[in-house]
Amino acid sequence: MSIITRFKDIMSSNINALLDKAENPEKMIDQYLRNLNKDLGKVKSETASVMAEEQRAKRVLNECQEEMEKMERYAIKALEAGNEGDARKFLEKKGTLATKLSELEAAYQLAATNSKQMKQMHDKLVGDIGELESRRSMLKAKWSVAKTQEKMNKLGASAADSSNTISAFGRMEDKVNRALDEANAMAELNADPKDDIEELTAKYDETSSVDNELAALKAKIQNNG
């Protein structure tokens, strides 16, 4: 596709809008710069041929106009010489050239328009490239900071989740301990009450092993005596 056919797209392009929509401005700005430089290369390449075409169209147009003026001069000379037939032929030729002149004028206007568009595209591309070049370092630095902050935010969220998990386990442990304490208390309440009399009689029924051994030794001594 000729670069001229992309005139409207190039002239209406807005680098700021493109960067605002980009998910990754760092990659977008590099890609857009490559595209702009590629387009600029085509513009420079075609500008010479377009300007040459404009000059050629202008030259052919001028030659046609000069030829028409020439035919008119010869028609006048023929009439002055009394040769109306020759004058008619010169005027007929002039009429043919007039038709051709209209076509040449249209061709020249198209060539001139193309040449003007090429210059406009050139100036627009040079301006966009200059702006992007000046902003590239700044945008890349901001993008790097943004990505770093995003990673830190994710790490912070993970740490918060970990703290929440630990807190949840702590609450669960407290709940289990409360349940165990309540179960022990309930078991104590459900136990059969102890008889104080039984404990008291058992106290006096118990005989110290030392007393028993002492009594046995006394009996042994008496028997030996």
Automatic annotation (TrEMBL):
<comment type="similarity">
    <text>Belongs to the PspA/Vipp/IM30 family.</text>
</comment>
<protein>
    <submittedName>
        <fullName>Phage shock protein A</fullName>
    </submittedName>
</protein>
<dbReference type="Pfam" id="PF04012">
    <property type="entry name" value="PspA_IM30"/>
</dbReference>
<keyword id="KW-0175">Coiled coil</keyword>
<dbReference type="InterPro" id="IPR007157">
    <property type="entry name" value="PspA_VIPP1"/>
</dbReference>
<feature type="coiled-coil region">
    <location>
        <begin position="50"/>
        <end position="81"/>
    </location>
</feature>
